[in-house]
Here is the input.
Amino acid sequence: MRKLTLALAALALAAPAVTEPALAQNEQFIPALVYRTGPYAPNGIPFANGVADYWTLLNERDGGINGVKIVFEECETGYATDKGVECYERLKGKGPTGAAYFSPLSTGITFALTDKVPGDKIPLLTMGYGRSESRNGAVFPWNFIAVGSYWTAADVAIQHIAKELGGFDKLKGKKISLVYHDSPYGKEPIAALEARAKLNGFDFKAIPVTHPGVEQKSQWLAIRQDRPDYVLLWGWGVMNSTSIKEAAAVGFPREKVIGVWWSGAEPDVTPAGEQSAGYKALMLQHGPGKFAVHADLEKNVVSKGKAAAKEDFAQVLYNRGLINSMIGTEAIRTAMKKYGNKPMTGEQVRWGFENLNLTAARIKELGFEGMLQPLRFSCEDHQGADVARMQQWDGKAWKTISDYYKADDSILAPLVKENAAKYATEKKITARDCSKES
Amino acid sequence: MFYRETGQFKTSYAADMQIFPIRQDRIALWVLLAVAFIGIPLLNAFHIWPFGNEYMLRAILIPFLILSLAAIGLNILTGYCGQLSLGSGAFMAIGAYSAYKFGTGVHIPFGLFDLSIPPLPMLPSILLGALMSAVVGILFGIPSLRIKGLYLAVATLAAQFFFDWVFIRVKWFTNYNSSGSVSAPDLNFFGFVVNAPIERYLLCLIFVAIFALLAKNLVRGNIGRQWMATRDMDIAAELMGIRPLYAKLSAFAISSFIMGVAGALWAFVYLGAWEPLAFSIDRSFQILFMVIIGGLGSILGSFLGAAFILVLPILLDQVPHALGVPISVETVSLLVFIVTGALICWLLIVEPRGFARLWSTGKEKLRLWPYPY
Here is the structure.
């Protein structure tokens, strides 16, 4: 018995030593914080598969980025902040130049890492989640909240409701409730919704649901009593399908439930079966379905048996994973234009992000036409785009039901400015002067 | 042969009463402290494996030290005084949030006369935060005068859920932050900003060393004996003149104080930015398991238990990857659950009194080695 214990201990101690020299020099290391277990796994898995498959595609089809092979490693966070921090520490120094960027897919982990990345000089790509005020690149040089923030989402959702009702003036006196995951993630949109409520004169009520969200009977009973005109849903993982089931149980029309883009994928609606039909959700620009990039994936990755994806191929969250990796690797490519075709450090990748310009032509070239609108980061703007669409689940598939809405900057810009300034004073950060950046 | 106190004569009361009466123990402790305070920083400075990289410090040693401290806190309450508590997470949270409030300035609008305290320096913030935790600990300890065992555990569970709720709902505690997540102010100690991993490690080490010494001295003194008497049989203890009110509430206070310090360190030094989920019921269970696995009623056990519960899963998680075994991360994380769970079961069957007991059995055997009878 003692020998066994000793052998285990020796093995454990020797383990880190074995890994160190394994990586070659001309390789770009990109870490992946994933959650393939736990209550959020149904949503974490397709995203992680998309992320991994796009990197595999670049390696298989192009031999990496400009000849620099991508090496990646996954670390299981289980959506827990402390485990995420451990994974971050484990992966940040790997590869010849360290981690290129991190995408934790968790608002809680994003908050914790936001304080750590400036010291380690690694950019944080949080596509469609994280701190909404991190759009302000002058205060948050290392955060890139690409494509859209929760405030964008909240604003677009209200715009869509106004359109359904027939104009912004019709919002007056209406009741809109928010059923949200009681965590930083779910609380983020409240500020923007309150600002909208004040402006458009609707009654706003926020109804929290405790993690992980499988128990929401009382919340939906309250909704039945209160009879709001619309319910916004800010859930994740099992919470989403539970909400839809509860809405059906209290007879709240699913057409009046609008989910955020993290509540609008296949794992959110399929468990509720027939009850989900009619449910609407925002799109982080893209939806499910196959596009040009999927043909390349099928040819170079799936047919070779190297795909991580199974039945989730071309689903909403899988496609989001693809876009996430595409934006990250394009930032690396942009950085290589300035620093040469070799593995980039986190600092160089940050420059790449800040100067990334995904034009419509470039998006088409990459095979993402129809999934993403042009996106351009700058020193002031770390979001790059603020448009979103609406989709509806017809019982079998997601159907796009609206054109692009643009979030109202006159409402969101002051919020971003105010909250970024608050963060800057709290953390004693002096904002960069963007007019002097090259 | 080496571990034998033959020939060590105690010639003064001081020598008789010291913490470690055996010379070899004292030497071992000093060596351990020297390694922790001098060796590890030196290895880190010269980048020598295994302490040369940040990972070892930031992801293993710092959380290990902080959770050991929390385990010491719970051990005083559960291990020494016999009061089962499931509220460790809540007491840590109170320490963390109070320290955050003191560190960023307290403002209580009382209507006519506002109470305003300017932002305090870091050390007083942490200690005042811990004091708040102690006060709440006393409040939630009052039921312990009437109820015992599992019933008390349920009462402390109420503290856990209540404070989970408070820190999520009462926006005052998070300085009205829109997302409800707060981020720690600078770790400024008398003008010196603790930032590098090795500095953070040393900061935690200093706290842990001081409180471990304090706890060790408390439990072998008057008050510790009162706790243990209460634990072993409260009626007998009362008949011998021990006031249960004083014994139990002091255990609650000191235990919560130490857990409050641990909570503040966990939030400020390890996480940096946190939300109430960081101190959920899972944390309470984690610390309770550390105490049970490590050994109830042992300061050393708190460290061993923390190492087992925290570090073992992290190491197991990395074994397949390090050996180049191609299995997916989800399989690995499930395997880690299975292996850790099996090891806990095995350990509790082999030695229900935890690592501390194994340690003392080992010491007994070592005394006789190499000529056991």
Remarks:
- Chain B has one domain: 59-106+115-368.
